[in-house]
């Protein structure tokens, strides 16, 4: 029996608050979970700064990856039982694809770094490219496990994540508008944030999924479950992922790392506060080993050191981040954009460096988007299968989905120090009053 086909003597189960149990049957899956690269995901929060808004959101990318694996395992079971391929090319499920699907599901986020999206923005890293590197580099434990299946297997798993794998069914399980990744993070993030927005009927959706030659479709009778999922995703983005406080803490984190980088480049950072594990990134010359050493705790430790920095901006931003002192914000429109230079000047007069204490931040999302081949990254549309086997695109038969298709939701905000809203009588009171005259009902006004 080959390594890839080896099953554990007894199925292993992991308790999970979202899926009840995660079932591990293949030896390779347990071996991958036990690699150092996968264990590192325990030390990286799934939602970054969101735990500073929703205090329960302390869950990690480790738990999310296990959840994506578990949903993918259930899909494979459902497909193998109900839609097995009988002849090559008939559009049914070939269960020989199970192992590559399970490994891609488990490892899809293994390249994420600490506070990943902010870190990527500052240091121009790419978590998907790093995921592929972790899978294919002979220096990683993950690669050594995958190679035991075959020399080509690491590249095959990477191809699923890169969306170049030849079987679209496998790709769409992991990456589409309704995939195991999104389904797990909506349910998991909803559970840990203590909100109900992300809940939908996972069992029903899995029951109505069907493989076909072009990928994965859904039975027409399951349309309402799919609608519910689309609305849940929309609500989670509006209420949780785009929350102004979480975005404010991301701004502080972004500026904190930028300030540390600037001080290092100018040789102005204290020797005792030198972030040695970040230097390869400050120098834009890092190895995969450098990257894998990082997690949220490493960054938080440096932030703690920086509290005592002689540089006031670095010390203040570190303190604001660690002690959760968010910036305030107000909605910004094209009409009020012209106010920004004046507001930044007032902030400077109040004693703040406007570069490090202000920001504009956009958060927009399309709740659902019909397939448009002209887009740079066209989304895989959701298709429903009718009784005669023909396919229809979801928004053509769902009034609810049609109403939100292509509608961009979200906002653009201007972030500034909370001190600008102070009513205390002090040296800067006139400055504060001039600033506050342009804010009303969470919006900038002319």
From TrEMBL:
Pfam families: HD, HD_assoc_2. Keywords: Hydrolase. SUPFAM superfamilies: HD-domain/PDEase-like (SSF109604). It comes from the Bacteria. GO terms for biological process: dGTP catabolic process. InterPro entries: dGTPase-like, HD/PDEase_dom, HD_assoc_2, HD_domain. SMART domains: HDc. The keyword Hydrolase applies. Residues 57-195 form the HD/PDEase domain. The keyword Hydrolase applies. One of its GO terms (molecular function) is dGTPase activity. This is Phosphohydrolase. It comes from Lactiplantibacillus fabifermentans T30PCM01.
